[in-house]
């Protein structure tokens, strides 16, 4: 068994496309009267803020670990667990003792990258049969999912199950989640979750993050809290040239100039903003709440820090020096991963899952190809301070008003899809049916064309087990990925609002929407650092200072539940 658990079928480039388009979701819902009405009024006031501490303890499911297979590399410093050894089909364990579904027919909407399979395909049928439900998937283009999500939540025809990625929690969508989705606490809080053993094994931090509007609404996909953005480099070409990964911002710049040969169409790197934020210790910006942190008794936002400005200035100097690929300067035209594998750039940053994806992709095309992730250097040569990401960032939500029997069938499906590595349920979810969707070659499952076309996205969004990485076909890559997470995890701190889902008041939800475009303009030389300082000043006067006071009240009256 060798499922790719790090990306659950989601191309990392697509995730980052979402993240770099934070204004899209806001535009999709900002003018929708039905959504505004649904999210306004007294009910919305009750749902603002967050739930933590003793209040959360009353809601959270009881954690019950479930070790089916001992990891080859145990989780450490917040890393995923690692599996480098394949498990024979005959040795797979059963984690769901009996078919729990009672035959409910339900609809589910989720993002999908690539051509979606036919609705009645063999994989969907096999999953439905194994669980005891009939799910009709309404797969939507992952690249335009924010638009579809906003439109659906603004209307009344909401599917029984809706997947919402964390990068779509913009504008009025958090309020819509509170207004339009079920409270699952009556089914999962406390010991009630023990009816679903695989859900009970999901880490508490992931469930804490699934509390929206004071209710346990989300079925989570747990994740490692270690930064998922790795600065990759071409290890084969570095070795051939005798280059070493840089250990400071100055070393990076010097190496980048040495690598770049524009006449030969080789540039050192792509846009390095994500790595720069880590190098300079900027608070995590993947979630609005994580952008705030208590420093020396004062709550400050990442926009207000010197580290934020210094990171932008450093990236601007990379562009100014001509070491960044021209397509990156042109607002990231094309694909950075393709530029990397073709040798047009030798360094780029993206989701850590690219390590495996690109290695496998290039195995048959370029046998000499080798990539690695450099340890994130501190800007001054000392180890950086990294900030934890969220322990869950994708959820499935159940439509409000769904009958009890249907909710229980949805939970049965989620219990099935959150089965751990080494089980028959995990194998079916990740690989489909043996002989149809995969065959065993050299002891490893290998997907057929049908498997590649049908077994992707969809079911993996229902819920998933604790974070793990399992690539027995590339054991050295698996080992390297986990060890990189462990080293970076040792440098990682949890900020003041780690693991909390916070619903901001409507008047401030779009306050920072323009900052990402301004960041892009500054590093490309179209705007100046002084423009950012002016934008921060305006942000403060237009509501940033009031928002600070609002977050400070949350901090003063709550504390994260122990996980």
TrEMBL record:
Protein name as annotated: Extracellular solute-binding protein
InterPro entries: Bact_solute-bd_prot1 (IPR050490), SBP (IPR006059), TAT_signal (IPR006311)
The UniProt record lists the keyword Metal-binding: no
Keywords, alphabetical: Signal, Transport
Source organism of this protein record: Streptomyces zhihengii
One Pfam entry name: SBP_bac_8
Subcellular locations according to the entry: Cell envelope
Assigned protein family: Belongs to the bacterial solute-binding protein 1 family.
SUPFAM superfamilies per the UniProt record, alphabetical: Periplasmic binding protein-like II
Gene3D superfamilies listed in its UniProt record: Periplasmic binding protein-like II (3.40.190.10)
Keyword Transport applies: yes
């Amino acid at each position: 068994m060798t499922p790719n658990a790090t990306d659950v079928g989601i191309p990392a480039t697509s995730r980052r496309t979402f993240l770099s388009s934070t204004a899209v979701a806001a535009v999709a819902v900002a003018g929708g009267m039905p959504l505004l009405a649904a999210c306004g009024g007294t009910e919305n006031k009750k749902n603002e803020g967050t739930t933590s501490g003793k209040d959360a303890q009353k809601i959270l499911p009881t954690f019950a670990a479930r070790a089916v297979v001992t990891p080859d590399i145990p989780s450490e410093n917040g890393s995923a667990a690692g599996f480098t050894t394949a498990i024979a089909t005959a040795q797979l364990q059963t984690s769901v003792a009996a078919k729990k579904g009672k035959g409910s027919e339900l609809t589910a909407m989720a993002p999908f990258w690539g051509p979606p399979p036919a609705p009645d395909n063999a994989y969907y049928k096999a999953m439905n049969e194994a669980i005891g439900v009939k799910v009709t998937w309404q797969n939507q283009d992952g690249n335009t999912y924010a638009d579809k999500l906003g439109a659906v939540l603004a209307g009344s025809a909401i599917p029984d199950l809706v997947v919402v990625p964390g990068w779509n929690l913009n504008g009025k969508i958090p309020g819509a989640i509170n207004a339009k989705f079920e409270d699952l606490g009556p089914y999962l809080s406390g010991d009630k979750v023990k009816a679903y053993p695989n859900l009970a094994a999901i880490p508490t931090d992931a469930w804490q993050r699934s509390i929206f509007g004071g209710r346990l609404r989300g079925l989570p996909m747990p994740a490692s809290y270690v930064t998922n953005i790795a600065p990759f480099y071409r290890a084969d070409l570095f070795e051939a040239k005798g280059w070493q990964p840089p250990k400071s911002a100055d070393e990076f710049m010097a190496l980048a100039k040495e690598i770049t040969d524009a006449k030969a169409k080789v540039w050192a790197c792509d846009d390095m903003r994500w790595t720069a934020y880590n190098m300079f210790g900027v608070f995590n910006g993947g979630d609005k709440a994580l952008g705030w942190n208590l420093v020396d008794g004062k709550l400050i936002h990442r926009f207000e820090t010197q580290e934020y400005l210094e990171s932008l200035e450093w990236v601007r100097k990379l562009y100014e020096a001509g070491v960044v690929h021209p397509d990156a300067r042109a607002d990231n035209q094309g694909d950075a991963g393709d530029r990397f594998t073709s040798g047009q750039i030798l360094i780029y940053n993206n989701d850590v899952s690219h390590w495996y994806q690109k290695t496998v992709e290039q195995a048959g095309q370029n046998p000499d190809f080798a990539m690695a992730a450099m340890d994130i250097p501190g800007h001054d040569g000392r180890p950086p301070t990294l900030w934890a990401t969220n322990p869950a960032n994708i959820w499935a939500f159940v439509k409000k008003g769904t009958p009890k029997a249907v909710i229980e069938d949805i939970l049965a499906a989620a219990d099935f899809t959150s089965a751990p590595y080494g089980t028959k349920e995990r194998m079916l979810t990740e690989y489909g049916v043996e002989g149809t969707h995969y065959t065993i070659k050299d002891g490893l499952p290998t997907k057929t064309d049908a498997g590649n076309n049908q077994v992707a996205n969809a079911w993996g969004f229902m819920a998933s087990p604790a974070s793990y990485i399992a690539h027995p076909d590339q054991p050295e890559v698996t080992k390297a990925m986990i060890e990189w997470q462990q080293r970076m995890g040792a440098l990682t701190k949890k900020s003041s609002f780690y693991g909390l889902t916070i619903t901001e008041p409507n008047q401030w939800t779009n306050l920072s929407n323009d900052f990402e475009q301004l960041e892009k303009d500054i590093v490309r030389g179209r705007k100046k650092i002084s423009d950012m300082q002016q934008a921060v000043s305006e942000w403060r006067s237009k509501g940033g200072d009031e928002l600070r006071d609002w977050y400070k009240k949350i901090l003063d009256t709550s504390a994260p539940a122990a996980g």
